[in-house]
Amino acid sequence: MKNIYLIIITLAFTVQSFGQKMFFKQEVIEDLNFLRESLEQAHYNLYTYITKESFNENFEQIKSSITKDSLSLLEVTSLFQSVISKANNGHTEIPFPAAAYTEFAYSNGTLFPLELAFENGKALIRKNWSNNDSLEIGTEVISINNKPIAEVLAKIYPLISAERRYFKLAKLELTTFPRLYWQAFGEQKNFTVSVKKNGIIEDYQLKSIGLIEDYEYKRKEISFVNRALQFINKTAYLIPGNFSGDEKKYKRFIDSSFVEINKKKVPNLIIDLRNNLGGDDAFSDYMVSYIAKKPFRWCSEFTMKTSAILKSHVRKNYDITNPYWKSVLEHENGSIYPYKFNEYQPQPKDKRYNGKVYVLVNRQSHSQAAVTAAQIQDYKFAVIVGEETGDFPSLYASQYAYNLPKTGVEVKISKGYITRVNGSKKAEGVIPDMYIKDHLLDEKDEILDGLLTQIDNTH
Q1: Rg of the chain in Å (alpha carbons)
Q2: Which of 31, 67, 81, 337 lies at a 20 to 30 A Cα distance from 295?
């Protein structure tokens, strides 16, 4: 999942004239058919979490709902998301329509003024961007414009791909409620918001807020995490950031961090994988090599499905002499085959960290971040602390992208299945060894502060 913040930040520096492209009904239907066919051909196992009959029934309902002669990019994207999300696979998705959102921003668009977090089955105010200060953080939202929050979510859910409701809500929090409410319901200038305060339901009349000045400029993304190292008492606190980007620069950061950590000889190390969008095992394994006590792998088994679409993607984007990518081209379309990764070696003893290690996770530990936490847990390299991850550590992933031929809408799809180190394929996230709830409602850091208190109490 791309960090939407990186898209929005361009709004501050770019001034363009937009005219949203429209697509004829026939073009949309052709791409709809192509979407279903390509998913069946290229996805590792499209019908893992839903029957083919149910998937096709949903497809036909969406197809028959197209009655207009032409549709906007936003309408088309929402339609296609409603098809692909039915597969219930978080790595098989159509991203949030950032281009349409950017155009809406430049047309002085406005948004719903409350950011929500979803905890214990309730929609709770996380940020209040309205002019009404009496709506406190943590207040439960019951309905919006006379629609119960369950009905509101039912309209938003088809826009989000995820294996289960817990993960769907985590991805909703990541993309943010105001953005997805706009996508699902369109722009609205006024809102009647019913909330529960001290067991009493109260109604508030709120006005929409400016997308750029009142929302994007004032907030920060849940996942906008910079790499950092700091020392708190006798504990080193490392934020490695997402496992992506410039690999050489990343490795230099990890190298220098562990030089500093070992120089200070601190007895405890905390590695923070919360709010982490994941990335590539080449990054995560390098970090793990500094705390590993023996050779290791990032998964116990990896299998991949090849297809004409994947082969085309590989030829355009990768070095086909690399054994991994070469294997894609050597197998017949539609075949599923195992690919074994070599063991990764720990750093030399004089470079490794040998103290007590803790790894922080939460529902926003995505993809490779969840896989890495499970890897560390299964090898017993560290204690996992926090709340269950939204993503499964054994999952359909190894994502790549292609574009639909008529509309150009980007489709992301899972080509592989990853099995965690201990071999478990249970449909669950990484379960922490030490559970501490991560409330996304305030600026407090319950997980980090709770762990530091526990560390202090044991020394």
Answers
A1: 23
A2: 337
161-198 burial, b at 16+ Cβ within 10 Å, e below that, comes to bbbbeebbbbbbbbbbbbbbbbbbeeeeeebebbbeee
> What are the two backbone dihedrals, phi and then psi, of residue 280, each rounded to the nearest 5 degrees?
-120, 145
Average pLDDT, the chain: 94
DSSP string computed for 73-119: HHHHHHHHHHHHGGG--TTSB----HHHHHHHHHTT-EE-SEEEEEE
297-319 average pLDDT score:
97
Backbone angles phi, psi at 352, to 5 degrees: -70, 155
User: Nearest 5°: CA angle at 217, between 172 and 363?
Assistant: 25
All domains in the chain, ordered by first residue: 4-106 (no CATH), 110-216 (2.30.42.10), 228-457 (3.90.226.10)
Higher per-residue pLDDT: 443 or 413: 413
With beta carbons less than 8 A apart as the criterion, state whether 437 and 387 touch. Answer: yes
Phi-psi region for residue 186, left (φ > 0), alpha (ψ -120 to 50) or beta?
Answer: left
State yes or no: pLDDT of 427 exceeds 90. yes
Q: Report d(CA 363, CA 386) in Å as an integer.
A: 9
Q: Does residue 442 surpass a pLDDT of 80? A: no
Note the pLDDT tens digit of each residue in 365-383.
999 999 999 999 999 999 9
